[in-house]
Design a protein that fits this description.
single chain; alpha+beta; Aminopeptidase; 2 domains; 13-stranded mixed beta sheet; 32% helix; globular
Length: 369
């Protein structure tokens, strides 16, 4: 029996069974970073501007499975697309089939011809399924799920649309690999741009410029959904800026002062966020200035978000910023990770070339309607 299954309105109250299920699924998982219930409630409310032009669906089979669906006017490869997200469940294909069949019917009625996921509302939020490396746990924002999720989706008729990877290397190995070549070309590059530390103060003072930069640089990404300046300031404002590392994050500024590129590095805060942590902190409360020193060794830096303005892509700036942050990380982080890169993205080559560590794999799935 379902607790709720049908169209979702933001004035409605999320079923407790929807909110409770992740804690049940991961009750004995020492790696799990608990879901922020208050954040989930906010995302499904009028506080989320996505509902200004988007329609949602929600279903939950208590104790077994939950699922949400999202539709707004968006074409992917020329087809109207819907997304599924907030998906969790036990290894029971019957419960999942009940929810996915109902969601597909709703999405088709909205006009969609293909379903993608998991994507929680938009790709600004969590998306993808973890495929391997379950013995290593997960960093904040990395997909984390039971190993059977991929086979469940395949049994429900989904196929892989894209695969992604994260690479993990020792900082000393990366530095040794990039140092000589990078330092040789850096003086020439600095005739075009200056490479500085990206700080929270700079980020906050340039939010309007960064909003335009992000839309221009990332607008062509798969399933990218533009957001308003107001939403950008909510999602990427002070709480976001207070988390990244000001000592290793890199800002590239053109000689005329424009932002040519940036590459943000975040400490891997997961030891402080896991449900088994004695110091457990809510993800929304993390602050670099307060919590970096509380991280146990070995410490890992996560190169999570980077981009280069189209005017500067012919100059190898993305690779240069990767080298720069690696050199800055020496003595600060024991390891470095290049995170959540699509397998067909050229930027993945930097991390694969430098260092001999390990990888994590992920996938995004699709199904016709």
């Amino acid at each position: 029996m379902t607790d709720y299954m049908g169209p979702w309105q933001p004035e409605m109250v999320l079923p407790e069974s929807f909110l409770d299920l992740p804690a049940q699924i991961y009750a004995n998982d020492s790696w799990w970073i608990p879901e922020d219930r208050d954040s989930v409630k906010t995302q499904f409310s009028h506080a989320n501007s996505w509902f200004n032009d988007g329609n949602a669906w929600l279903g939950v089979v208590p104790g077994k499975a939950r699922l949400a669906g999202f539709f707004r006017e968006q074409l992917i490869d020329g087809e109207p697309a819907a997304f599924f997200g907030f998906w969790e469940g036990i290894d029971d294909v019957v419960a999942h089939r009940q929810l996915f069949d109902a969601l597909k019917d709703w999405a088709h009625a909205q006009g969609a011809t293909r379903l993608y996921g998991p994507i929680n509302f938009t790709t600004f939020n969590a998306y993808r399924v973890r495929l391997d490396g379950f013995e290593h746990g997960a960093f904040p924002g990395e997909p984390w799920n039971p190993p059977y999720y991929a086979s469940l989706l395949e049994s429900l008729g989904f196929t892989t649309r894209y695969r992604y990877l994260s690479t993990f290397n020792d900082t000393t190995d990366v530095v040794a690999s990039v140092k000589s070549d990078y330092l040789r070309v850096k003086p020439q590059l600095e005739k075009l741009v200056t490479l500085e530390a990206m700080t929270a103060d700079f980020w906050m003072r340039h939010l309007d410029e960064l909003y335009g930069f992000v839309n221009q640089v990332f607008g062509g990404n798969f399933a990218y959904t533009p957001i308003s300046l107001q939403t950008f300031k909510q999602v990427c404002g002070k709480p976001f800026a207070s988390k990244f590392c000001p000592r290793t994050s890199v800002l590239a500024r053109a000689r005329d002062g424009r932002i040519a590129g940036f590459f943000l590095v975040f400490p891997d805060y997961s030891p402080l966020l896991r449900q088994t942590s004695t110091l457990r902190i809510r993800p929304g409360d993390i602050h670099y200035a307060t919590h970096f020193e509380q991280l146990p060794s070995p410490r890992r830096g996560l190169a999570k978000t980077g981009g280069v303005h189209p005017d500067f892509r012919a100059h190898g700036l993305f690779t240069a910023m990767g080298c720069e942050l690696s050199l800055r990380a020496e003595g600060i982080y024991d390891g470095l990770a290049g995170t959540l890169v699509r397998e067909d993205n050229n930027s993945r080559q930097f991390a694969l070339r430098h260092g001999g560590g390990f990888t994590h794999l992920y996938a995004l799935y699709q199904s016709p309607l």
